[in-house]
Amino acid sequence: MKKITLETPLIIYEEQHEMPEEYQHLMSIARKALEDAYAPYSHFYVGAAALLQDGSIITGANQENAAYPMCLCAERVALGTASMQYPNIPIKVMAITVKNPEKEVIQPAAPCGSCRQAICEMENRQQQSIILLLQGEQGPVYEISSGASILPLSFNGEYL
Ligand code: THU
Predict the structure, then answer these.
(1) Residues with beta carbon inside 6 Å of ligand 1?
(2) pTM
(3) CA-CA distance, 99 to 13, in Å (whole number)?
(4) C-alpha–C-alpha distance, residues 141 and 138, integer Å
(5) For residue 109, which of 25, 46, 98, 156 is within the disulfide window of CB 3.0 to 4.6 Å?
(6) Under CATH, which number does the domain 10-151 receive?
(7) Domain parsing of the chain, residue ranges
(8) pLDDT one digit per residue (tens) for the chain, 160 residues
């Protein structure tokens, strides 16, 4: 018998200006993208901006549906758009931010489990980790080195 501990290292930027300028820029684009969310049911707005290896930036925002389980998360909208518009160009960094008009979110909101799985799939596909930057409406930014680090023991294609 042995016991192991799985760790998720985080870099926390208490102030936005502590981040590299490239990250600040990407987060500002994610914040702008959430204005394109279609969220008439939850009134919760999520924006994502993905920086690709060639410098292109792709955005995504959540797109809801009256049939609730069909709602698309911002992260997966961005991943799908990147795949279609820039096939085979790896994603380096994805910034994600949220807005709740009823309650200011001052902590980073992490991607849901399904999005973590989708980010891991993309990391496996492109053979490169995706750095994640998470921020609430304001407040600290968490930098996470990969999707895999927030989905330990994940299921992947190697089992199939
Ligand atoms: N949402 C995202 O866009 N990303 C996540 O990782 C979590 C949740 C969206 C889905 C839905 O439109 C709203 O937030 C409330 O769950």
Answers:
(1) 39, 42, 44, 46, 62, 64, 71, 73-75, 111-112, 115
(2) 0.97
(3) 19
(4) 8
(5) 98
(6) 3.40.140.10
(7) 10-151
(8) 999 999 999 999 999 899 999 999 999 999 999 999 999 999 999 999 999 999 999 999 999 999 999 999 999 999 999 999 999 999 999 999 999 999 999 999 999 999 999 999 999 999 999 999 999 999 999 999 999 999 999 999 999 9
